[in-house]
Design brief:
Strand content of chain A: 5-15%
Order of helices and strands of chain A: EHEEHEHEHEHHEHEHEEHH
CATH superfamily of chain B: RNA polymerase II/Efflux pump adaptor protein, barrel-sandwich hybrid domain
Number of strands of chain A: 10
Number of helices of chain B: 5
Distance between the termini of chain A: 57 Å
Strand order of the largest sheet of chain B: 3-4-5-11-10-7
Radius of gyration of chain A: 20 Å
CATH topology of chain B: OB fold (Dihydrolipoamide Acetyltransferase, E2P)
CATH superfamily of one domain in chain A: Aldolase class I
Order of helices and strands of chain B: EEEEEHEEEEEHHEHH
CATH topology of one domain in chain A: TIM Barrel
Shape of chain A: globular
Structural class of chain B: alpha+beta
CATH class of chain B: Mainly Beta
Number of helices of chain A: 10
Number of strands of chain B: 11
Largest sheet of chain A: 8 strands, mixed
Largest sheet of chain B: 6 strands, antiparallel
Distance between the termini of chain B: 33 Å
Oligomer: heterodimer
CATH class of one domain in chain A: Alpha Beta
Chain lengths: 361, 154
């Protein structure tokens, strides 16, 4: 069973398997590039390739929900990121594969981790990629490793878009989950400084802020942020909290499908349909209680399915580029975000999960 | 239950001492009279991706050929384990349910899935591939198909 698998690594010591010579790639990317065997439950094309820097010491941050957290038990080598294995591959082999499959690629994203070498190595890997393929590149940045000149340099070496993993959508949540933790120290203000710099350097709709649903925030917190980002022409990308075993938040449940679907819909209404916060009302706990809109207008949006697709950087022609299939849920679980346009049967499920009667007149 | 007559086809081990259902990649190995052990061949496992979990129906469940007797979950894929025969489930492989990688490591041996008391052996077994040459030809063709589809690592 092993002989026919591509040998992903040369016989080198573990110390040699770090970025920039090696990177991790998502399992979906490995399948798309035929570096790992496998398939997807549903039939769709995958062109979004996700890379993750790799270091022996791992990520120096310690976020309560993250599989890569510094104090999560286990070596970095054994840690999962978003619950599944990320195969380790030689960077040059990966770039060769990207060149081979370039016509099918829609977006390449390099995820930094908080590490002293992350900036330098991200530049190195970006240059290796841009020398061989023209697929647009995004970088999911680690703000503690950056300053304005470094963002400017990313742009100068061909980076198309910047992502910032804010994840926790209020300062209080950010502090309790990412700052005041055993080996934490990430700064809310620093993240927003990077947002401001990146927005200025990369321009409108070239920056995205990742928001994680289910960390303890309210719907009102989320929607307020979506509006603020939209007003600055910054994309908000939704991610669904998915408890990582052994992480400090391993026991916290995922958000319900109903809440998740309603947040997806609200985010879409805000970002794409121009809704403002006044068009939503909330209960005393900050939960979404009502959308002030006609039922038919909402039904029309739901029917396109777009609101429920993966939020990700677009491809070169504006098509969905980064779709992260099964990124925050197991293949055996219901879709959270769809890496394709939902089919009629999917929309039927989505409508049931939304229970629109409760929130739209 | 001896594993005799193994060969390797394009890197995949193939046991020729049993029958195969071509649509499901399930093998059927007759044990006691009227009883069979069922497992999945390594090509079916490999093309599903990195195996995460196997689950089975309870012992005593009545099986109908073509219907699921469990579920396979891989990193990016989930699908039914489809029975190639009809009968009653006599045993399930708890070790494989606990550690799905066992089925990857030893698909023809310790990684078996279920044991069944056959209810229509005379009617259903002839539909399975049993001739070693036919099995080998089918297996090689499927590998070529899967390579074209891009579901086998290259």
């Amino acid at each position: 069973m092993v002989a026919h698998q591509l040998s992903l690594l040369p016989a080198a010591g573990p110390a040699a398997r770090t970025s920039p010579e090696y990177v991790r790639i998502s399992m979906a990317s490995a399948i798309a590039l035929r570096m790992r065997s496998g398939r997807f439950s549903r039939d769709f094309e995958l062109g979004g390739i996700n890379l993750l820097l790799n270091y022996d010491e791992g990520c120096r941050s310690d976020c309560g929900y993250c599989g890569l957290a510094r104090t999560r038990p286990g070596s970095f080598e054994d840690k999962s990121f978003i619950r599944v294995e990320w195969p380790l591959v030689a960077t040059d082999d990966l770039v060769e594969r990207m060149a081979r499959f370039e016509p099918a690629l829609t977006r390449i994203c390099i995820s930094m981790v908080t590490h002293g070498r992350a900036y330098r190595d991200t530049c190195d890997i970006t240059r290796r990629i841009t020398a061989r393929v023209r697929t647009p590149i995004s970088i999911l940045v680690a703000p503690p490793t950056l300053r304005r000149e470094r963002l400017e340099n990313f742009r100068s070496i061909g980076v198309d878009m910047i992502g910032i993993g804010l994840d926790a959508v209020t300062e209080e949540l950010f502090r309790t989950i990412r700052t005041e933790v055993p080996a934490g120290g990430l700064k809310w203000d620093r993240y927003w400084e990077v947002v401001t710099d990146a927005r200025e350097i990369f321009g409108p709709w070239k920056l995205n802020v990742h928001t994680l649903v289910g960390l303890g925030e309210t719907d009102q917190d989320l929607l307020s942020l979506f509006v603020a980002l939209r007003d600055r022409q910054i994309f908000s990308y939704l991610f669904c909290f998915n408890p990582e075993p052994d992480s400090r938040m391993a026991a916290q449940p995922k958000p319900s499908l109903q809440r998740w679907r309603r947040v997806q819909l609200a985010r879409y209404l805000i970002e794409t349909e121009g809704y403002d916060l006044e068009q939503f009302s909330f209960d005393c706990n900050g939960g979404l209680a009502r959308v002030q809109a006609g039922r038919s207008a909402i039904e029309t949006v739901v029917a396109t399915g777009s609101a429920f697709m993966t939020n990700g950087c677009p491809g070169g022609n504006g098509e969905p580029g980064c779709t992260r299939p099964y990124g925050s849920y197991r293949a055996a679980e219901p879709f959270r975000d769809y890496p394709f346009v939902p089919a009629a049967s999917d929309l039927e499920e989505i409508r049931q999960q939304l229970s629109l009667d409760d929130v739209v007149k | 239950m001896e594993q005799a007559g193994h060969l390797v086809v394009a890197g995949f081990p193939l046991a020729l001492d049993r029958r195969y259902h071509v649509g499901t990649h399930m093998w059927v190995l007759l044990s006691e009279p009227g009883q069979a052990r069922i497992g999945m061949d390594p090509l079916g496992i490999e093309t599903s991706g990195t195996l995460a979990e196997l689950s089975f129906v309870p012992v005593g469940t009545e099986l109908i050929a073509g219907r699921p007797f469990g579920q396979l979950e891989a990193a990016k894929f989930v699908g039914p384990l489809v029975s190639p025969v009809s009968g009653i489930v006599l045993a399930v492989n708890d070790a494989a349910a606990i550690d799905a990688a066992l089925t990857v490591r030893d698909p023809y041996g310790a990684g078996w899935l279920i044991e069944v008391s056959l209810s229509d052996a005379a009617g259903e077994l002839p539909a399975l591939l049993a001739d070693p040459d036919e099995i080998t030809t089918w297996f090689a063709a499927k590998i070529a198909d899967y390579r074209r589809m891009g579901v086998i690592a290259q």
